[in-house]
Task: structure prediction
Amino acid sequence: MKIIRDYQFVNSGDKGASVAVGNFDGVHLGHQHVIDIARLWGSKNKSPLGVLTFEPHPRSYFSPDASNFRLMSPDAKATRLNKLNVEKLYELNFNKTLSSLNPFDFADQVISKGLGLRHLVVGEDFCFGKGRSGTVKDLISLGSSMGFEVTIAELMETEIGQVSSTSIRNALAEGRPNDAAKQLGHWHRIEGVVIGGEQRGRELGYPTANMSLDDLHLPHLGVYAVLVDVLNGEHVGSYNGVASLGVRPMFGENAPNLETFIFDFSGDLYGATLSVALVEFMRPEIKFDSLESLIVQMDKDSLKSREILKSLK
Result:
């Protein structure tokens, strides 16, 4: 998958795509439906499959002090889109210039002349241009005069309701990763680089891979059964494990992070990129009276996680 970040300097070979348009936070089933519509049109019309999105997220750009809401980092989103065989990711830099374009100029400068798109798939509530003043009807009208087609994708429903990033955030915040997965079409994953910690886990017999949760929506704090993919480095592969997502209350006030113990693993993961899937919430975070009681509970957590993950096979 090729990532294009500037609509003003696009090679001719990267034009002519059929794209799904949106923020795609979580890349849930609704997003996948939109992508599949773009894929089908592209296969019929010999156009590459693309996704058009923006970084930073427009919500973050206009409200930088708002609480963290993102389900995935830009890298995690790219990883997921690559798995869906997206060929072109137009991850445009959302800045003052882009946000100031009115609907006509956005369609003309970005969609038509800049990216040279042939086909766009958008949700029925899609808005674009300065102040979100452009509607789906405007986009269809502009497309007919500028030479690109537009398809409107209906919102998707599942047995647990309408698929949306908001609904998925709520499920994760309430410790319901299985319900989130039903809307995502995959386990919710936290992807990031393994960073240095205070090595308390190693001293307790449970060495963990520590990852930052900066800028991400926080799932319910506690202990989870997890699946772990090591994406690069000498230990690339898939593993099972148990993870603590929280603030480590036994050791003072700390920023939330994710600490993952990988079963039957030995090796150095510092600097490697991990993708950790939250499979099942097992218990809330607890402040123990002693390290001994903490270790006893960690033993129990590990056994329970092994049983949960064994049942997936």
